[in-house]
Amino acid sequence: LNSPWNKRGDMTLPEGVKNGEKSILEVGAQEQGERNVKTFDLTAQEKEWEISEGKTVNAWTYNGTVPGEPLRVKEGDFVKVNLKNELNVPVTIHWHGVLLPNKMDGIPGLTQDAVQPGESFTYEFIANDAGTYWYHSHQHSSEQVDKGLYGSLVIEEKEKEYEKDEFFILDEWAVDQDKRDMSNMGGMMQGAMSGDGEADTKQMYDTFTVNGKAGSAIEPLKMEAGETARLRFVNAGYQAHKLVFPEGSMRVIANDAEKVVSEKNTSNVLEIAPGERIDVEFTKQTKETAFIGQEQSIENAEDMMIPVVSENNDQAADQEVVLASGKETAKGISYGSEKPLFEDTPDPDVNYDMDLSMGMNMGEGMSFQINDKTFPETPPIQVKEGDIVKVTLRNTGRMNHPMHLHGHRFQVNSKNGEEFENPIVKDLIHVKPGEEYVIYFKADNAGEWLFHCHDNNHADMGMVTIVDYE
Ligand code: C2O
Ligand code: CU
Predict the structure, then answer these.
(1) Mean pLDDT, the chain, as a whole number?
(2) May I ask which residue range the UniProt record assigns to the signal sequence (predicted)?
(3) Based on CB atoms within 10 Å of each CB, which residue in 166, 321, 358, 463 is the most buried?
């Protein structure tokens, strides 16, 4: 059967494997079978990182670069990653979006102990499901991801569809120390007061990056006129970004590792929420340098600009940047997933109403809440294996909440009471102020899984709950 459930393959660990202490390979060679084993070593280490000429930050990295070492494997590979921690704080690696056994999810205090300075941990999983992923520390994410502990992971299809295939991770930095020292709280209060969902924590960030570089330090993408490529985008930052493409040059082909069907070129603006990943098919239309860049309406937009250059173009690199103007679709999400999880609206076994808001905690100041509680007091989503779970996410606050579910994908059936004609399957949904989404998922991967806001500040201040299997 062509069911999306099946593509996940076997996700349970063989008996005797606990917390990755013992290798799956040691326990049962049969697990490995005919599979290719891809082994990577990632060392968490401190590094002076140059964002652009004269702009340097003290970063925390996997293998000395921001983003960390790019990982590429093939569908069906057995992936083994040795994490070594050379920082003086504990870290982990979370495999964002990968459907894997709970023990490999990298959540300190839930699925493993954080990896202490000087210690190591080996992650192992089968790369069942081709698509775009990323990895990042899940220990104090608001600090560690912010300082650079993230990287890309691609699970390639057995038959590659696009010869040219590139990865771009978007992020924001506070390079200016004075701004950085301005308390995070202050920035957020300001955002909250202004009532602008976009304002939020953002005031302290003064530099935008693409693959760890800003402005003219961004490596140009090389493509000839008429060439088509797959471009994979991930937002590792706190702020939603809107990338503008030359008109008629792109179409969305996947969202959170799920392939989508979309009309060609209905829009040339790509909005990516924090934590989200979107793949597009992009065609270079002419030999003149083209630009893909942050929509110009916000501060520092010019940092986030990818030049697309052709080898046999006589124009020099320092030509004036001309960004196409943005044309957005009226409805926002304009595509559905190729393989929905449910044909018809299912009958749920579990109904969970998730109210997202901001609040004040006595003595602690601001907090971010699910159903008026902060984690770990938030009510868990209690499920049994096989349950169909319905979650209604409602944002009653004034800030954006990109909500991300670990270990599963969900189908987004409606927005503000309006059913989608073609539902989309995702693992992160950007819930903006006043919005309500209804999602469904199947409890098919036992364990304890986080469901949290991917604005990591909000998560660290309480906007987290757990999908808990009976
Ligand atoms: Cu990017 Cu809890 O995840
Ligand atoms: Cu949030």
Answers:
(1) 86
(2) none
(3) 463
